[in-house]
Amino acid sequence: MSCANRSPANDPQRRQTLISWLRWGSLLLAGSLAWPLTRFLAFRVMPKPRHVLVPAPLPLSGYHAERDFFLFLTAKGPIAVSRTCTHLGCRVNYLADRKIIECPCHQSRFTPTGQRISGPAKRNLPVYPVETRTDASGKVRDYVVTL
Ligand code: FES
To answer: Is the C or the N end of the chain the one with fewer CB within 10 Å?
Structure first.
């Protein structure tokens, strides 16, 4: 037997052990990197709620139009309805003469409370919470819509 065959580099058992350690080490390294990477990719920052102040009284038409919502005064109190169509996201319009909300893109129609009437939209319009604030005499001062 020659001296070269006895060197540690040529020892098959030692080579297998090193390969095994490398495999386990690379698996451990991949696992230790995968967890923080997964947490980073899955991390979501929740948007802060936005408060929009609508001064009272509302116009005689009975509703107030903002960029993102309509504010209606109903018998059950104020209701804020989103202006983003649930079909493909177009901005809806309120047709006061017919008392319906209609999407100009594909003519989905909704009630002033956001209930779907017809059209390709399958869901109702979202409704936002409204806080009615009064002054010391009990008169309505303004409405705060939380988006
Ligand atoms: S985007 Fe409103 S009906 Fe299609």
So the answer is: N
